[in-house]
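User: Fold this, then the next.

Assistant: Folding the first:
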Amino acid sequence: MRRTWHLLALVLAVTGGTVFGQALPNPYRWVDGWAQLPNGRPIGAVGKVTIDRDGRHVWAIIRCEPLADPARFGDECRDSKADTVYKFSPEGKVVASFGGGGMFIWPHGIAIDPDGNVWVTDAVAPDRIPRGEKRGHQVVKFSPDGKVLKTLGVPGMAGAGPDHFTSPSDIVFAPNGDFFVADGHNEDGNNRVVKFSKDGTFIKAWGRTGYAPGEFRTLHAIAMDARGRLFVADRANNRVQLFDQEGKFLTQWTQFGRPSGIFFDAKDQIYVADSESDNVQNPGWEMGIRIGDAASGWVHTFIQYPWGDPRVVAGTGAEFVAVDRDGNLYGGEPRPKKLQKYVRARP
């Protein structure tokens, strides 16, 4: 019997949680209309979400106005002065916002450093930057009240050197303040991880475009577990790659589907958002949020997107996920234009 259950666990891991048509349990329900912008303003495309150091408030990237033209996905803030960084109370009310004035074209990643400062990446593709513009390809550090403290990268200029980025997608901090930038939102971009010291000094970079260990195609997110391991969402390769902080490849996990966002909670659980698995990009997998054990990688819970249709090119669910201290989940959904809250359903 023990061998049978071990085999079942293995199948669950490699199939994303579906065995003989039965999905893993989902103890969550979604809370509609949780996030509310001032004056009833509709929400634009939502990028990454993360949790404040207090464990309760939620930070989110919201890409300006909810433009109806699908061709504008990728530069929604190009012509807008609206704020792009929002802090929400546990009740879903905005308590702070900044990052407006046309500072970003396509804000994407957000992270809170050990001192409580807010860092944002602009992942706009090079061909989406209007001629002559000095925006994009940057990482910006804000104080908690929105004062610009530091910028990294050359605005509007793509590159792969120690002082350039090309569409940086995400950022994560080590406890000592060192930080790592996932540099390369596009399949043929830089596709590297860049390490900096706490003061923003370049330390090293690793990675290139490809399929082998340590190579990437679309670094969509980066996160760090309690052991200090780096987890990179190598989305177009349908895997999560694990590294130490010096760039040594440790292993790769494919049991979390086509990863777009990664988050760790205080209980050593890993949450991976998959918004793109379909019959074209990752056949046989379903879109949703997979939850597992960070030490072993076992997947034990799956929040399936009920509106996902694997017969079409996807991208309709949460690309990012975050978890507050009470265990509530928050999904950043760009195309549905929703900051979705999930709570545990009562038995």
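Now the next one, as you asked:
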Amino acid sequence: MSLSIHAASVPVFQQMLGSLKDILAKAEAHASAKKIDPQALLGARLAPDMFPLTRQVQIACDFAKGVCARLALVELPVHEDTETSFAQLQARIDTVLAFIGALPQAAFAGAESREIVTRPGTPKERRFSGQDYLLHYGLPQFFFHHTTAYALLRHNGIEIGKPDYMGAY
């Protein structure tokens, strides 16, 4: 039995976005309990030249919706990256979860061999088969930003661990 592109993408993104929601909820509760300005966590960075927590969450969401949309050949929803609170980040994740959850499994048929072009017409243009796009670009990018969000919160004292990172599976 072979693994479908749908099975290798949508449920993985759903699991990990669910865990990201839970991690953000714990961070918000921690900030409230310790009387920490939420912006201190939302703007947290491990180095001056990296994106803050808010942007890490936005990019993780962008990869989840973007990868699924491209593989399913549906129009990519646009988000304006205006979130400034935990509640707004939670809402963005909810929007992405609803979007990818509504994609019909049948739309992914043949996606493994479908050509995916990133940044078409630019010097950074890349062409992938759907399978390579998912496995060698989309999932690694998503996990990088999800993991960075986790690390930023863990570094800032949020009591989270591997079970929180993994979420429900």
